[in-house]
Amino acid sequence: MNDRESTAQVDDVPSVPARPRNHASEIIVSGRIWSAVWYLAWPTAVNTLIQSAYGVVNTFFVGRLPHSTQAFAAVGIGGQALMFQFGMMIGLSAGTSALVARFLGAQKYDDADRVVGQTIVLSVIAGVITALPFIVFAVPIVSIIGARGEAGRLAADYTALIAWFSVPMFLMVNITAALRAAGDMRGPLVVNGGVILINIFLDWLLILGNGPFPRMGVHGAAVATSISRVLGMVMAFGLLQRSVLKGGLSYLNVDWHWCKRILNIGWPAAIQNLLFSTASAGFRWVLGSLPPQQVDPAQAALTVSIAIESLAFMPGIAYSIAATPLVGQNLGAGKPERAERSAWVAVSQAMFIMSSVALLFLLVPEWLARRFTQEASVVPLVVSYLRINAVSEPFLALSMVLRGALQGAGDTRTPAVISVGTMWVLRLPMAYLLARTLGFGAVGAWIAMSATTCFSGILMALWFKWGTWRSIEL
Questions:
Q1: What does the alpha-carbon distance between residue 243 and residue 22 come to, in Å, rounded to a whole number?
Q2: Could you tell me the pLDDT band of residue 22, with boundaries at 50, 70 and 90?
Q3: What is the pTM (predicted TM-score) of this model?
Q4: Residue-wise pLDDT tens digits, 184-228
């Protein structure tokens, strides 16, 4: 059954939607655009700021451990390894978000429910399949990325333990993605905010060994993350049962037609994120190929720097998420001009916020760095990272938000090409050239990162302005 057949009406009977538009959809397709963007963005912005705070607090706890340089490197490398899996989650959520937004915009509620049901099925399957390599081959995986010695042992333990709890994470991420596509940004805020608060509390208990618990260090960070994933999944299902998409729970039998529709949109996003993850791992490999005395400080500096930089790019993620239903639902409602205008408004708001935060990176980078580490070999590298990448934050806003907008239109292929091109064709060779061949070390790698981020944002803006995304049929 295709989407036209699923909504066919008896001849001469007016077409009446089975359910009225929910409040969020009314705002998205007919309200003031600036208000609609802010309505969708602010709960997710709060959520992403909480996530940033979690990253900051988690890094703070790890920094209080003995031999914190190895602990920083282990958590960063373990997280980098798991980004391969996260890429699959994002790919699946991209297909779900695009279809749910388009169907709700067109008031095809049964089709939206079917998408949600098959997303749950695919989440379980993908969670199991992607977890196995990280459980069985954790040691060689973190070694390939660049882990050595004690940092490698800690990173492998961290990666394998978290991988055991992949299915709850897939379900939580993809159910909340469907809810956001429906315009519900506050529910996912409650879920993710709750998960992060639980995770922070468990980090305090387990990483540092407070209360009745022994100090577990990096292993404790993995345990805390795993427990919070399970609780997040339970909360996500609770929200789904009370949402406009609750009918999706009636479609949990495998329907390959709908699975294929989701994956047809999602696979380019999955490939994009997988290649992004491998490129990020390749970036860490470049740092790992530096002279031995530079490796651990460079790896630790990257982990700390990204935690600090998240204060800028997390709002960009919020606006990217908001752009998906803004574009998808307006296209479904037959309003392509409003879809485009909504995306540019989201871009403008994101650029303002991210550029404002970037000023701190230029003005007080050492103060920020010393909130996390006092290591004499790490602080200067963090300072240089923040100053160099502050320049690229407006372009990062362009790239992130327009990627979310194109995802709402169902165009996941072009962003994949742009990401692969800038990361693999430009960033990695440039990073190696500057860091190793020309001898600039980690600073050369930071320059390559900033320059290619700027280029990616420009390409994304050009495609969104003149591309064919407005006419894509899902």
A1: 10
A2: low
A3: 0.77
A4: 888 988 898 888 889 889 988 998 888 888 888 888 888 998 999
* C-alpha to C-alpha distance for 100 and 408, rounded to whole angstroms: 9
Distance CA 279, CA 286 (A): 10
pLDDT number for residue 262: 94
Q: Which domain holds residue 199?
A: 21-471
Q: Which residue has the tokens 């996941």?
A: 412
Domain count within the chain = 1
Residue 85 · residue 130 · CB < 8 Å:
yes
In a domain, 9, yes or no: no
- Pick from 419, 145, 406, 132: which is nearest to 271 by CA? 419
Tokens describing residue 436: 């190793």
Burial 218-247 (b: 16+ CB within 10 A, else e): bbbbbbbbbbbbbbbbebbeebbeebbbeb
Spatial separation of the C-alpha atoms in residues 466 and 411, rounded to whole Å: 13
389 closest CA partner among 457, 459, 300:
457
Q: What is the DSSP string of 405-449?
A: HHHHHT--HHHHHHHHIIIIIIIHHHHHIIIIIS--THHHHHHHH
The answer as to whether 231 is a domain residue is yes
List of residues 6+ apart from 426 with CB closer than 8 A: 448, 451, 452, 455
Q: Is residue 344 part of a domain?
A: yes
> What three-state secondary structure class fits 467?
coil
**Token pair for 441:** 């070390």
DSSP 29-87: HHS-HHHHHHHHHHHHHHHHHHHHHHHHHHHHHHHTSTTHHHHHHHHHHHHHHHHHHHH
Burial pattern 405-434, b for ≥16 Cβ within 10 A else e, equals: bbbbbbbbbbbbebbbebbeeebbebbbeb
Count of residues making up the chain:
474
CB 393 within 8 A of CB 357: yes
Tell me whether residue 397 is in a domain: yes
